[in-house]
């Protein structure tokens, strides 16, 4: 069952990521190098790529660096938390200002709805004790820290911010910092919640 879910996850993931890349390439308003940088400036793309690489590395049992790091303790829990944030931010903040159609609609739903829920289900049914170790899970908070740092620094010089709630030029530094704080608070709450829920799930499995 686990391997079946992994191959489904990697197929859906790569289809959505490649599909989004092709769509962005077709509709680009800048040169290709800048478009590629902007493509990978979206937390949605980066996180879906990490999730898809996780499924790929797990299914094919890849041991090479850095893919083997994705199979280390706590990674599945951290990735589940971050992909859930992708879904939540889209549903609560971005969906009302974005009305995609055609292939773009399909890709958007995969990236922001289907894959987050799929990853949550995969995590729930394949949970192990090592997936709930607090230290390696919390170490993953470095990922959004580095992401935000990159976006803010590059945005200052390029003027491009991938999300309206991070656009300092439009909403100001104070509101941007508040928005960043809210996202980090939600990330921390989701991580803690997954650890608590996960421990309960494992205890219940042991009783069966």
Report on the architecture of this protein.
This protein has 208 residues and is mainly α. It has one domain. Helices cover 75% and strands 0% of the residues. The protein has nine helices and no strands. It has helices at 2-26, 32-39, 43-60, 75-94, 102-125, 134-139, 142-158, 168-171, 173-207. Helix 1 packs antiparallel against helix 3 (43-60), helix 3 (43-60) packs antiparallel against helix 4 (75-94) and helix 4 packs across helix 9. The longest helix has 35 residues, at 173-207. It is globular. The model has no long low-confidence stretch (mean pLDDT 95).
In short:
By secondary structure, this protein is mainly α. The chain is built from 9 helices and no strands. Helix 3 (43-60) runs antiparallel to helix 4 (75-94), helix 3 (43-60) packs across helix 5 (102-125) and helix 4 (75-94) runs antiparallel to helix 5 (102-125).
Tell me the overall shape: globular
Quickly count the helices: 9
Rounded average pLDDT: 95
Give the DSSP E fraction (strand runs of 2 or more residues). Answer: under 5%
Sheet with the most strands? none
The domain tally reads: 1
Poorly predicted runs of 5 or more residues: none
> Could you estimate the helical fraction of the residues in percent?
over 70%
Strand and helix order: HHHHHHHHH
- The total count of strands amounts to 0
Distance between the termini: 19 Å
